[in-house]
Every structure is written in structure tokens, then in C-alpha cells.
Amino acid sequence: MNENKVIKDKKKTGALGKAYVGLLLIFFYFPIIYTVVFSFNSSKSLSVFSGFSLRWYEKMLNDNSMINAIFYTVFVAVVATAVSTVVGTLTAIGLSGSSKVLKIAINQINNLPILNPDIVTAIGLLMFFSALTVKKGLLTLLLAHIMFCIPYVILSIMPKLRTLDPNLADAAMDLGCTPFQALIKVIVPEIMPGIMSGALIAFTMSFDDFVISYFVTGNGVNNISIMVYTMSKRINPSINALSTIIIAIITIGLLVANILPVIKEKKEKTK
To answer: Most buried one in 19, 67, 106, 148, CB count within 10 A?
Structure first.
């Protein structure tokens, strides 16, 4: 009897757990599905689906302000990711060989932009650029994004560096490598997962940023987040079309990132 009761309780618990996970998935993904569906709506309504149409995709492609926002968003995200990844990687490698006091001090400074609310960072950057009399625009937007992306890269690489043998670089140089060759051919390949993680986080943070971008950009230079904010007071289903394209790109990227290692592993097994 007790065993039957335990089995029934486990089944109930399992059913409740599955229902809870199902509700969470609906809560997370329903807005995304809703956006994708209504990007193909023939009418302007955001609540009634009137029929299938590509009019909002056509309108998006014909909207110069939206195309410019996409360009600035992608350009800033790519450049900020590239620069912050290089700077963050070199900084993390340098810190790994530094004294404990310096390492703690730099780590505390590195954590400030991450722990600070975005509004505080945005106001600080606004005052900084104003004090230097730098005209707000693409340059200030790019510098701001590089600044807040670097800490995330460092934070992603440092744990990987802690797992490395501290004598690895010395061993490579004893075998004939120059310091630069030891860095490129030995250290960097070992910490590549951390570098890739940092680069992906940096790209996501830059692509998604609104608060800091809103304070440091100038007239005529808007990213997607700022453009969506300015359109929030009036209905524009073209935003749904743009969001759907971004969702599709992210989904394809995730699929490729997960499928390629599996294919590579299968090829190595067949050799």
C-alpha cells in the first residue's frame, strides 16, 4: 500500500512539474510567437489577424529610417564586439600573470560597469563626453558600447584562465616559441571557449542596449532599440516584421552553433 502511495505521489509530482514547465514555456515564448504571427497580418491591427500578407516586410524595407537603424545597430555591435574581445582577452591574460593585489583591484573596477544600473552608466558617459566637448553621434555611441562590453569579455575569460597550467607559456617558449607565438598558438586556443562566450555576450549586450545608447547618441544616429522606443506611441506593425527577422537570425545562429559541433564530432569518430 505504501509503495503504491509513493508511486502515485511521484506521478502527481511529475505531472505538476511538467505542467509548471509547460506554463513557463508558454509565458516565455508566447510573446515571440505572437510577434511572428502578427508580422504577417494584412491589417494594421495588433489584436485581430485579418489574413496573410507581406506588406509590413515591404514597408520595413522601404523605410529608410528603419534600414539606417538596422545598419547602425549591426555596425556598432560588430565593431564593439571585435574591439572589446581583443582588449578584454589581452587584459584578462595580463591579469592572470599579475600580482594578487593588482588582480583584485582591477577585478573590482571591472565589476563596476556590470553592477552599476544602466541609467547611472549612461549619465556618467553623457557627462564625460560633455566635459570633453565631444559631439554626440556614432563615435560616442561606439565608444560607450566598447566600454560596457569589455567587462563582460574579461569576466567570461578569467575562469578559463584559472584552469590553465601557469607554466604552459614557459613550456611553449622553452620549445622554441616566441612570446607572441606562445600567446597565439598555445594560450588563445586553450581559452577559446571563454573568448567566444565573451564575444557572444558582448554582441548581445551591444545589439540590445537602449538606455546607454539613448543618452550618448546624437541626431540621425539611432539603433533599433531607440527606434522602437520612438515608435511605441503609435502603432507600426513593421516592428513585428523587423523583430521576426531578428528572431529568425538568432534561431539560425543557435541551430548552427549547436549542430556544427555534433557534425564535427561524428566526422572525427568516422576517421
So the answer is: 148
- 133: which DSSP letter? T
N- to C-terminal Cα distance for the chain?
A: 55
Task: Give CA–CA dist 38/4, Å, rounded.
Answer: 49
∠ Cα 121 124 125 (to 5°): 85
Handedness of CA 223, 228, 234, 239 (dihedral sign): positive
DSSP code per residue over 138-185: HHHHHHHHHHHHHHHHHHHHHHHHHTS-TTHHHHHHHTT--HHHHIII
Query: Rounded distance, CA 141 to CA 226, Å?
Result: 12
Burial of 230 (0-12, 13-18, 19+ CB in 10 A): middle
Distances (CA, A) of 181 to 50, 92, 157, 192: 62, 18, 19, 15
Which is more confident, 249 or 233? Answer: 249
pLDDT in tens, 93-122: 888 877 788 888 888 888 888 888 889 999
* 55 confidence band (pLDDT: 50, 70, 90): confident
Nearest 5°: the CA angle 193, 196, 201 is 125
Rounded to 5 degrees, φ, ψ at 234 are -135, 145
Contact 207, 253 (CB under 8 A): no
What angle, rounded to 10 degrees, do the helices at 238-270 and 64-96 form? 40
Would you call 137 exposed, middle or buried from its count of C-beta atoms within 10 A (0-12, 13-18, 19+)?
middle
Copy the grid coordinates of residue 113: 560597469
